[in-house]
Fold each of these.
Amino acid sequence: MLFRFVFGAVENKKHLLSLYNAINNTEYSNIDDIEINTLSDIIYIRMKNDVSFILDSDMNLYEHQSTFNPNMPLRGMMCFSTLYSQFLSVNRKNIYGKTLVKIPTPRYIVFYNGDDIFPDKIELKLSDAFERPDSSGHFEWTATMLNINKGHNPDILGKCQALSQYSDFVAKVKENYQTMPIEEAV
């Protein structure tokens, strides 16, 4: 919930833009260019995500995980399906016509700060979940997992102060939790 507040709240768009710039090596400066479209857990959607937004023809989905989850590509594909349905509806796009409908490019990032040891960056692939292995490459959906634990991804953490502070806060809570109840650790 903290990740969603820091990066997904409308009043914190500056942090979201900083994070986007850090990940993509860009220098966007206008927070009004961000269109936040985060899914809420409402009855007819039955799905939620941490933060999603459109910027510069990219549909970005940012998820935070404190435990490793190899199902993130599947979860991401399902979220993007809902996000694209909303995008098509809001923009009155007809996918049943003869004209190719252009959609924002999907960008899916998972920020990991759990206790398992992972490199700075790994690509999780939907095809790893296929019951029958398929190396044809005809269909693939990926999630880029970035390790934001202390000592990992210093370039990204160095470019985004809010992410660096978030990472430091979580590390301190985990350290405190070793010797005290979670309420006191926080």
Amino acid sequence: SHRADVRDAEAVREMVVRAGRDLGPVDIVVNNAGREQRVARPFDLTHDDYQEMIDLNLHGVVHLCRAAVPGMQARRWGRIINIATVALDTPAPNFSAYAASKGAMVALSRNLALELGPDGITVNVVAPGWIATPRSDSAPREDLERLIATTPLGYQGRPEHVAGAVLFYASSLADFVSGTYLPVSGGHDL
């Protein structure tokens, strides 16, 4: 596997070079690295807390796109799929730094769609809701029950739901789709 800390531009560039050498041209990028680091009330977070979220959730996307886009432009085809969060649509307490950094990434994605479209590159955003993962399993049971009760489909999402949206954007089914934002939340964000 090819790994890099997305906050390190040079490490990301080297990863894209290695992946291209070992696997062939990088035509599809899924910017999925990112998470909330510290959750707290907005003004209990420090400047560094906010900066850490920006470095991970915004600059990480910039670094990977900067490394992969020139090859896509040369081939006049590419897909960039950025993973956001429905916390932009339905704010949650204590997630201000995370939501702000993901909001910046969504704005960047729309601008990239505009700028890269003439090169045959689409840029879209998938915004997962509360997806069942080992990390979400540690949430209090009452929070999960409340979430499910307020989700029109009536259950918690699974990783394959997010993967299906990513696969759609990466496929030829989405050849004429760019600049979009797709919540994968069971309708929770309505």
Amino acid sequence: AGVDHILDDDSIPKDIPISRIVDPQMAFSMTNYIVMAVLNYQRCLYDFQDAQGKGHWAQFEFDEKDLKIGVYGIGHLGMDAANALYRLGFEVFGYSNSSKETIFPSFYGNQLSEFLNKINVLVCTVPLTPKTKGLLSAKLFNDLAFPTYLINVSRGAVHVENDIIKAIKEGKLTGAFLDVFEKEPYSGPLSLMENCILTPHLGSCTLECRARMESESLNEALRFLQGDSLLQEVPDAEYVYQE
């Protein structure tokens, strides 16, 4: 789905065309993952689990959170998740490099500050490119208008781990739900933070997804061998993400 690791491999000749996978099952799985992360936070599930562990009946102690959810990167996967959250009744905002037609308010280009001023949950679904490397850093966290919950399902190199830890300690982030890490497998300090939930890079990596990815890869290779145009070719030697 992401081709950054391929483009970074100098052993692959630059004239070989590269395609990415766009699959409905991937969007289904990723959207369910993001909705799970949002709902667990919104309904204070971790607080109730903690109370259960202490044998405490916390029936009226934790209220549902009033969320304003920002989806940073409303391409194939991000748009599907944003639409699902909107249809569940959440207040949703989107941000993209280019203008998009959306059922929720969306921002693009130089409107990033306006987007960040609206939200208290940030869902990151951008690809890894030279522009997005280290995107989730102190610079962005300092521009958030409200204490914000971070959900990153993109790539580990999109966030800066030490800046996330610092932002949580300073209260700029209320916590984080992370599926990707700078170095994987991950066993660093975020694992020990109470308000961080970590999963091992499985947001849309189901058995069914992998089978469909194999099928789509084979079909794309056959199109190439037959001289047909590729359906999802990456347009440049440098990864330009077509949202």
Amino acid sequence: GIRRDAKAGPRAGGPRHPDAEARETMVVADAVRLIKWGRQWHELGEAIARMAGRPGVAEVRRILRAHKPAIERQLDE
């Protein structure tokens, strides 16, 4: 049979892919920047997902939910 490349798709519940942390860091930085530029929280998922090299909107929203406290801390700095 044909074996799929490990990067072919996300595996829910599996070990974190090394690129997953980099994507999360990028999305968090994008969120902080967009909020500082005046975007509202509910606009972030779609706005970030439209940027080149970013994950899809569902993944972006998951990352935003998971990192909301960290994003809010960075806005207070």
